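Form 7-S
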Amino acid sequence: MNRYLSYPSYSDSSNKRIGQIPAQWQLIRLKHMARIKNGQDYKHVEVDETASGYPVIGSGGQFTKASKYLYSGESILLGRKGTIDKPLYINAPFWTVDTMFYTEIQRNTYPRYLYYCALTIPFGFYSTSTALPSMTQEDLGSNVFPFPSFSEQETIAKFLDHETTKIDTLIEKQQQLIKLLKEKRQAVISHAVTKGLNPDAPMKDSGVEWLGEVPEHWDVGCIKQFAKIESGHTPDKKIEEYWIDCDIPWVSLNDSKTLKVVDYIEDTKYKVNLLGIQNSSARLLP
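Output:
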């Protein structure tokens, strides 16, 4: 960031999240940058996906089409229930569902600048702590953003369009590389455990279609012949005594997510005590 010139002077925004801003900038609430409006149920306007129509937008983007549009023009869509932390930008006639908000952007606000501002909203702070996260118009509208002149908003937005496109392209290339490396990794593992490491070893038919040939001196058998498979068990979570002063690692779905990255679980999010194990079907594993 050192290649960007500083402004002549800065002032304290009195907002901990924002900090100092250029002295000539203002602070403004989202509700003064755009009117926040509720989406509506789309069932009465839904058309066949193959037909012509207007996109129906949810938190994940378009998922069907509508015979009418709810709003035409540039707008920022914000989640109202469910996925609330993924603002969307659209510049075409559209319909959006009743779990979304859409915005009618004021003339003093450059739409793409508002979009980038929306990406900085601390959604975790505002969302309700329910099974289905939700946002209110009041909470959204109260968010404060730096507000430069319209021309500077446009300059900032176009700069971010350019820079984020480069970054997104790099991310996509890296993801493609990661995918290829994962495929290669799996191929190396599969070959080693089904064909061995000696390319000159005599081979025989395994009798298993997907396995094909294996080294002649190998045996072929089912997993149950070599290992015992059993289910995990959970001590009753309603009994507080089982989950106090715990030192025994208890593997749950919270921990299995790490297996997408590494091949082992180093530690567990939750631990249980011996009393919990003794009063359940769970048993201590080596």
